[in-house]
Inverse folding.
């Protein structure tokens, strides 16, 4: 009986140990703007990718403007936080993402700026098929609570095959290393809502009139 009890408590003890460690999150402005290449640390590589990819147009995107139109505003407003985690197992990844979500919620900004907040956490030790499956499970574990609170948690990786919304030949979720990104659900997420109906109640509660119009316009195309 004692052995069984110890085994049952082991995962909780491991999670508690993970939560005792700090996840350092820094504003993107803390990272130099000069491209640093593959030899840079994980945080710098993410910052370089944000500036060179998310904040710029792409010929395959299918529309004008930056790949993520909110990121340039977020960066200028000091609302992008970047960190790297040494986590290797699922519970450690989950613990760090809970801290990242808490940091996202605690970010100081005006009410109008809330939609621009973003937190990006790299997981350099979660590469390959097993690492991707690990991050996907953590994403799913966080999904229910994050959806209720109007947040989106996206999984990016070097070999993502997820298709673009406007151009199916574009792969928008490719990044230099595996990472999970947190941002607010915004009005322009209507196409994602159509793909993921579980988002619809929160989306329509947040954008009852304009959101309904956007969804209907997409359905009538």
């Amino acid at each position: 009986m004692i052995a069984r009890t110890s085994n049952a408590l082991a995962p909780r003890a491991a999670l508690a140990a993970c939560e005792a460690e700090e996840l350092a999150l820094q504003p993107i402005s803390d990272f130099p703007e000069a491209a640093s290449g593959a030899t840079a640390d994980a945080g710098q590589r993410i910052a370089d990718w944000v500036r060179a990819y998310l904040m710029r147009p792409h010929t395959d995107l299918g529309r004008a403007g930056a790949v993520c139109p909110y990121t340039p505003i977020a960066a200028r407003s000091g609302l992008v936080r970047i960190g790297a985690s040494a986590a290797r197992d699922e519970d450690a990844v989950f613990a760090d993402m809970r801290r990242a979500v808490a940091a996202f919620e605690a970010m100081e900004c005006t009410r109008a700026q809330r939609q621009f907040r973003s937190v990006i956490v790299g997981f350099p030790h979660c590469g390959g098929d097993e690492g991707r499956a690990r991050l996907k499970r953590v994403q799913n574990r966080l999904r229910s609570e994050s959806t209720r609170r109007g947040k989106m948690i996206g999984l990016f990786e070097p070999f993502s095959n997820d298709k673009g919304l406007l151009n199916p030949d574009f792969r928008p979720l490719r990044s230099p290393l595996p990472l999970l990104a947190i941002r607010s659900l915004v009005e322009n997420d209507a196409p994602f809502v159509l793909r993921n109906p579980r988002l619809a109640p929160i989306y329509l509660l947040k954008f009852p009139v304009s959101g309904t119009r956007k969804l209907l316009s997409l359905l009538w195309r």
User: Anything to note?
Assistant: The chain has two domains: 13-184, 188-221.
